[in-house]
Structures are given as structure tokens and as C-alpha cells.
Amino acid sequence: MTDQLTDLAVSIQASLEASGDGALRPMGLRRILVGPNALERLPAEVVDVARPGRIVMFEDATPMQRGGDDLKALAASLLSTVGDVDRIVLGPSHGHLYADADTLAVARAAVAGAGCVVTVGSGTVTDIGKDAAHSNPGIPLLVVQSAASVNGFADDMAVIVKDGVKRTVPSVWPSGLLIDHQVLRDAPARLTRSGFAEMMAMFTAPADWRLAAFVGTDLSYSHGVIDLFQPRGEDLLTAAPSVAAGEGAALDLLATLLTASGVAMGVVGRTAVMSGTEHLISHLLDMSAASRRLAVGLHGAQVGVAALVAACIWERILDRLDPDILRSDAAFPDPTGVRPLVFEAFASLDSTGAAAAECWTDYQSKLASWHHHRPRVAAMAERWEEISVELRHLVGDPARMAAALTAVGAPTR
């Protein structure tokens, strides 16, 4: 890690402009300050963006350290130098924090009339802060990243729980993101491993997204956006042992790629950039655990394992798919025949059937789009040999990915 404080937003913005993709949305993050003492800039950032009113600081009950100090107490002390601070502890004193309806309601009410919202904590705390700021337009949000654990610190979407189902909804861009090197070093190693595993989606999700563009169900695909992070994918795999050892340069690379991929999702306005089959599998694991009142696994760790599954599926498809199947009626099932299968698959999530109904709503919409684009699917089948070459370049080698996950100490199954 360098000793200088840098603004990562500058280089990301330059890359976006160089891509020449006029369809991208503006990057709402004004500053992404990365460095050894980034936290110390928190008061100045608040003064720069806040409107009149108190500072609301969201946190959860999980202890966090920075150089032997309590990170949250330190952040609150810094904030108190520029205004009155309301520290709001979200979720239970022991246990997992969920961005569910009750927690979101508490957060939205807490920020009413505030001059600024600051989140210090996990991706879930950040998502709740984004949602609260979105529900109270005009209130700026500043994010203190607590670990190199997820890429959701840097986008304008929030993952919430609705009727037992995890949903990604529009929220707001943070005005600023502070990534303090000491905080990254002091974060639990399991969170760093989880962030590394989260980045395995870069070897599967872009292929899903590109395929959706080929068949017409999502035309937002952007080579320029993928180039924000994918060219350094091999560097990250190689750095796995150094990430496990907590070496500064490796942690900086991981944090940079997580941030760039988060911004990439934000400027496209879709999670598809870094969220494909592997994230759906992770969300299903979360939904299953929550329905049985079991502990939810770390998001990134689950994504890493699921990315191995997705990469193996891609490898099988690219090696074995007969494109003629894409022209057949078998590839376009009738909704009336599929509906009972979907409800049966999700029936165990809750006794009311609300989760199954919510999942069927999504599936039905996607199935209708698939049927609507049947001519494009047939056209893709005609070009499959050519198209499969491009898709193969977007998919990682599952054996290489598994070796890197093992080297960093993350799960592989």
C-alpha cells in the first residue's frame, strides 16, 4: 500500500470517459479516498457535502478496530468535531443484521431532517444507509468501508429483504467513500477472504450478461465497463497468497477491484455486471438459511463457491451445447407447466407461500421475455460457433479459480 491518499474516483472516471460508451449513467461518487489515513478526512468530507442538521451515523453491534482503537467510536469522535452526532445501532446486539422491512423503517425514520448520513460498518449497514438516504431525498451519504469484503460500498443499489426474498432495489450513490488502509488490515481475515471470493464473479457474471445481450433480454452490455476490472483478474488470482498474508499491495488491489466493480454496476444501472448465476445461488442459500433460522453465510464466500459452479456450467455449455436445441420448442416451456415447479421449489421457504409467489413473479417475467425474443435466440444459434468464442474469453478457468480460493483460505465447496 502506498503512503499517499489517492482519489480512485479520478482514474475510474477517466476510464469511463475513454470507453466512449454514451449510454452509461454518470458516476455519482464524488470522491473515493484510499490511503493510510483516509478516515481522518471524514470531518472534511461531511463539511463539504452536508446540509444543515445533525449527523446520523449508522452502525451495527459488531466490534471493529482500527490500529487498536474502536473504529466506530473513533469515527463518531471525528464527526463530533463538525456537528451533533446521533449514533444509531441497527439490528440485534447479538446476531445477524438484515435489511428487512422493520430495520429499513427504523433507519428511514432516524434520518428524517438530518444534514448528513454516515455509515460505518458492513455492506448491509451501507445498504440500509443507502435506502434511508434514498427515502429522504437530498440527504448526502458518506460511507466508511469496514473491510475489503464486498463491492456494494461503491454503487447506488441496495440489497434488501422483501417477503423473505432478497431483492436489489434502486437507492443512492454515496457522496464519498473512505477506504482506510489500516481499517482493511485490521478487518477480520474471513471478511478479506470473502471479498476475494466475491471477485470470482468477474469470471462468470460478465459471460451471463453478454449472453443476455445476444438473446435480447438485456442490451445494456458494455465492454468499457467490464474493462474497469476484468483486465486485472489474472493479477488478483496470482495475488491470492499475498491477500491471505495481509500484504498491503494485495489488499489495495483487492479493494480497488471491488470498488471498480461496484462503480461499474452503478454506471450501468444493473447488477448484471458482477451478479449472475453465482449471485442467484448465494441468494438462494441466504433465503434457505433464513427460512430455517440458521446463520447466514458470508455473502462473498458463498459467491466464490457458486462462481466455481457457474464456471463449470459455462465450461460444459461451451464444450457440449448443440445449438439446434435453441431452435426447438423444448427450449421455450409453457408458463402453465412451469408454474407448479417453481412453487414447489420454493414452498419450503415459508408457510404462507409469499416467497414462492415473489419468485414466480420474477420467473414469469423472465420467461415471457425469453419467449418474446425467440427469433433472436434462433439467430444466436446460427452464429453459435462465433459467439461461443467471445463467451469463452469471459469465463474463468474453474480449476484456476479454485486454486486461488484455496490459496486465500476461502471455501471451495
Report the structural category: alpha/beta
Question: How do the strands of the widest beta sheet line up side by side?
Answer: 1-2-11-8-7-3-6
- Contiguous uncertain segments of 5+ residues: none
Our measurement of the CA-to-CA distance between the termini, rounded to an integer number of angstroms, reads 31 Å
Rg over CA atoms: 21 Å
Number of helices: 19
Major sheet description: 7 strands, mixed
Order of helices and strands: EHEHEEEHEHEHEEEEHHHHHHHHHHHHHH
- What overall geometry do the principal axes of the alpha carbons give? globular
Task: Write the SSE topology.
Elements: E1 6-7, H1 8-19, E2 31-35, H2 42-49, E3 55-59, E4 65-66, E5 69-70, H3 71-80, E6 85-89, H4 101-110, E7 116-121, H5 123-135, E8 141-145, E9 157-162, E10 165-170, E11 176-180, H6 181-186, H7 189-198, H8 205-215, H9 223-226, H10 233-238, H11 240-244, H12 248-268, H13 277-291, H14 299-320, H15 335-346, H16 354-372, H17 374-382, H18 384-394, H19 398-408
Parallel strand pairs: 2-11, 3-6, 3-7, 7-8, 8-11
Antiparallel strand pairs: 1-2, 4-5, 9-10
Helix pairs in contact: 4-5, 7-12, 7-14, 8-18, 13-14, 14-19, 15-16
